[in-house]
Amino acid sequence: MQRFIKSVGAVILLSSFSSLADPVSELENLVNQWLQIEQQTSELETHWLEKKTSMQQTLILLDAEQTQLKQLNQNRQKNTSELAEKRTALIQKQSQLETDENALNSQLIQLSQQLRSLQVQLPPPLLASWQSIGDLDNESLDANEKLQIALKMLGQLADFQNRISIHEMAISNSEGKEIWVKQLYLGAAQAWFVSNDLSYAGIGFPSELGWQWQFDTEIDGEQIAHGIAVQEKKQAAHWLTLPVFSYAAKELTP
User: Fold this and answer.
1) Mean pLDDT confidence for 221-246
2) Count of C-beta atoms within a 10 Å radius of residue 190
3) Which letter, b or e, does each residue of 207-241 get, where b requires 16 or more Cβ atoms within 10 Å of its Cβ?
4) Residue 219's closest CA among 166, 181, 167, 249?
5) What are phi and psi of 27, to 5 degrees?
6) How far is CA 63 from the centre of its chain?
7) pLDDT tens column, 216-229
8) What is residue 134's DSSP assignment?
9) Distance from the Cα of residue 177 to its chain's centroid
10) Are 133 and 115 spatial neighbours (Cβ–Cβ below 8 Å)?
11) Is the pLDDT score of 118 beyond 80?
12) Where are the alpha helices (DSSP H) in 16-121?
């Protein structure tokens, strides 16, 4: 209102210096101009407020987007760091696995050599069982497959060594005649055999030349037959007199 009074005063003051214009008309024109200016000012202020609100909302959105981009960048850096750590861990693990594999291959070579040298001295039933497991010299097998074969061989050896077992087969005497005999194995280092009619008897043992069968007329075939019958639970058990390792130290003649 005060602003309006000042404007009117200014109009009256200006009108006093004009001798040609109608004071009332000039005053109306001045008031109309003032009202237009006020209207324009109000429109500008309204437009500015709308623009300011829009800019503030845009700034809020930009701040939110910037925050999101920062978070995404931090996550990317974190993921990149985690991937680098995992890659380093995998490389170290792969290196360790290669070292372990090389050590395993070296040990497996030594174990295979020992098993091959032992193989020729095995009792025939155990040797046949080993041959059915697999061949350690098979180059198409990987280290793990060879290790499984070696472990099975050692397991069968331990099982055979810790029990008394009965087997049957034909063996050749000194005249080249094949005799069908039953065999009584005490572990993997000692065996006795006897024919069904008790006319042939002998002993078996490992040697540097391989497993050997030795006919011996001094061995009591009935004792061996009884031991086999006891093991097969066909007779009652009693004390047996059988030679043990009596041929192992002898030199074998061709």
Assistant:
1) 78
2) 20
3) beeebbbbbeeebbbebbbbbbebbeeeeeeeeee
4) 181
5) -65, -40
6) 47
7) 998 889 989 998 99
8) -
9) 57
10) no
11) yes
12) 23-119
Structure tokens at 138: 């098979």
Tokens of 210: 């391989």
Q: Could you tell me which residues come within 8 angstroms of residue 170 by beta carbon, excluding any fewer than 6 positions away? A: 178, 179, 180, 181
Sign of CA dihedral 18, 22, 23, 28: negative
Residue 244: its pLDDT value, please? 64
Going by C-alpha positions, the residue among 132, 186, 189, 190 that lies closest to residue 163 is 186
Q: Which of 121, 151, 158 is nearest to 136 (CA)?
A: 151
CB 179 within 8 A of CB 198: no
Name the residue with tokens 């009792």: 123
188: DSSP letter: T
Backbone angles phi, psi at 218, to 5 degrees: -80, -15
Lowest-pLDDT choice from 7-11, 98-102, 162-166: 7-11
Instruction: Give the three-class secondary structure for 194.
Output: strand
| Those residues with Cβ within 8 angstroms of residue 75's Cβ, 6 or more apart along the chain or in another chain | none
What percent of the chain lies above the pLDDT cut of 70? Answer: 84
Q: What are phi and psi of 82, to 5 degrees?
A: -65, -40
Q: Check: CB of residue 192 under 8 Å from CB of residue 214.
A: no
pTM of the model: 0.57
